[in-house]
Amino acid sequence: MQPDLHARRDGRDAGLVVLDSDLRYKIWDKEDHYFARADRADYVCDPNVPVNQRTLGVNHYILEDVGPGPEFLKLCFKSPADFGHDPALVGSAQCQSLVCAIGEGNCAAAMTHKWYPYKDGVMFCSRFWIGYALIDGVYKTEKGTAV
Questions:
Q1: Whether pTM exceeds 0.85
Q2: Burial tier of 136 (Cβ tally within 10 Å: 0-12, 13-18, 19+)
Q3: Which of 47, 18, 50, 25 is closest to 101 using CA atoms?
Q4: What is the pLDDT of residue 19?
Q5: Residue 15 — left, alpha, or beta (φ > 0 → left; ψ -120 to 50 → alpha)?
Q6: 20 vs 1, 9, 17, 36, CA distance in Å?
Q7: pLDDT tens digits along 65-115
Q8: First to last CA, the chain
Q9: Which burial class, exposed, middle or buried, applies to 145 when counting CB atoms under 10 A from its CB (0-12, 13-18, 19+)?
Q10: Can you say whether residue 43 is alpha, beta or left, with left for phi > 0 and alpha for psi between -120 and 50 degrees?
Q11: How far apart are CA 110 and CA 57, in angstroms?
Q12: Contact 91, 111 (CB under 8 A)
């Protein structure tokens, strides 16, 4: 079933606010990324919150095709430290920025996106751990084993 891409383009949908993240999200993969909604738009848009912290504790509700067709997913953005990364490395030449999230949906997964300077541009690296989920506040495999 093809999603209705024109529904609720006014910016409000069930208490969620559409940010300009739609374009950022779609530009990564315009054929499989349909939209993204943030549940804490006030926090994401707050100029007092440092840019590198604006995803921390924010959930994005997305429509994405990860293979079997478009489906709704929830990405729960976490601190890099929650994923075992050394926060002191963020902002360095080895890791200019790092975004971490764990997903809820039919395909449980954790992900990181990392940027760092490379030659005359930047290198963007993504890692996905399929089968990992956040269940009752604990990171677990789909089989329920705590990690």
A1: no
A2: exposed
A3: 25
A4: 47
A5: left
A6: 26, 12, 10, 9
A7: 877 888 888 899 999 998 889 989 988 988 999 999 998 877 778 999 999
A8: 35
A9: exposed
A10: alpha
A11: 15
A12: no
Count the Cβ atoms, other than its own, within 10 Å of residue 2.
7
Q: DSSP string covering the chain, please?
A: ----TTTTTTSEETTEE--THHHHHHHH-TTTEEEEEES-HHHHT-TTS-GGGTTTT-EEEEEEESSSSEEEEEEEEE-GGGGT--GGGTTBTTBSEEEEEEEESSS-EEEEEEEEEETTEEEEEEEEEETEEEETTEEEETTS-B-
Q: Could you tell me how far CA 22 lies from the centroid of its own chain?
A: 12
d(CA 41, CA 93): 30
